[in-house]
Design a protein that fits this description.
Number of helices: 10
Shape: globular
Largest sheet: 7 strands, mixed
CATH topology: Rossmann fold
Order of helices and strands: HHEHEHEEHEHHHEHHE
Radius of gyration: 18 Å
CATH class: Alpha Beta
Structural class: alpha/beta
Strand order of the largest sheet: 3-2-1-4-5-7-6
């Protein structure tokens, strides 16, 4: 960690001036500074990275499996793209990576720094206050970039171009994102369904939604593919989209996620109805 970032959290400044932020960026920052105060993030569950359990049917665990697979002590610079409260950064550090994380929310980063100190990774993880569309990292610096549920909060084209710039040749970027699904999302967004199951801005701890976030669509996917032609997409979440109603009855894994994986393997046609996608982007 041998370069200085203008947007270091200790400076309380974003990588661009407050007046240069877009209205969307301002709203995202303000939202998470408020939302973070509603959380009680004290502990990190290391099960997804300890290698003892396997849940390839879960999109989040699948990403962690990929990150563990890509780990190489000689190629270990990882960017936690939109690191939030730092739980993911701490897990990446546990694997062995030299981790850099950025976020647009000062409140998020305060929690993240607290977690790294608690688990003794403060010398292995560096956080900074930045925006995804205009990063202060050197070009070709990272071996791997990982982001969970972040691209649908930002300007896709600008953020993906920044990923390509700061990623080394031969590096990989991995993003787990919610995506629009034919028919299903059309029904989901009808007035009657939105009345029964609201999906507007809220500060609910279990399903917080910001004013501007939206699922990725076909146009977004094309933008990503134009920047990273060497792309692989893994689909998740078909029947398990109903987990929100049954999860309290599960002891551990979601049986619906396991069923989804079997359906996608036996009937590949149904993959297009998967509501979550893991994008694996290779820079040649």
């Amino acid at each position: 960690m041998n370069f200085i970032l203008q947007g270091d959290i200790m400076d309380n400044k974003l990588s661009v001036g407050e007046n240069e932020l877009t209205e969307r960026q301002k709203r995202e920052s303000e939202y998470y500074n408020i939302y973070t105060n509603k959380l009680d993030v004290e502990n990190v569950d290391f099960d997804p990275v300890d290698g003892i359990q396997k849940r390839p049917w879960n999109s989040y665990w699948y990403v962690y499996d990929l990150v563990r697979m890509y780990y190489n002590k000689d190629k270990n610079k990882l960017l936690d793209f939109g690191c939030g409260w730092g739980e993911t950064s701490v897990r990446f550090a546990k694997i062995g990576y030299e981790v850099y994380g950025f976020d647009i929310s000062e409140g998020n980063l305060k929690v993240a720094k607290k977690l790294t100190r608690k688990y003794g990774f403060q010398n292995q993880v560096e956080f900074s206050l930045q925006i995804a569309e205009n990063l202060n990292y050197p070009s070709g610096y990272f071996d791997i970039i990982v982001g969970f549920d972040i691209l649908h909060h930002v300007n896709i084209k600008s953020a993906i171009l920044e990923c390509k710039r700061i990623l080394k040749d031969g590096g990989v970027a991995i993003f787990r994102e919610p995506v629009e699904v034919p028919i299903i999302d059309y029904i989901r967004n009808t007035k009657i369904i939105k009345y029964i199951i609201p999906n507007e801005k809220n500060f609910n701890v279990s399903e917080h939604i910001t004013q501007d976030e939206r699922k990725l669509n076909k146009e977004d996917s094309e933008i990503i593919k134009n920047v990273f032609p060497d792309i692989k997409e893994e689909k998740f979440c078909f029947l398990s989209r109903f987990d929100r109603y049954f999860r309290k009855y599960y002891r551990r894994s979601s049986p619906l996620e396991i069923i989804d994986r079997k359906i996608f393997n036996i009937f590949p046609f149904f993959r297009k109805y998967g509501g979550d996608t893991v994008f694996i982007l290779n820079k040649k």
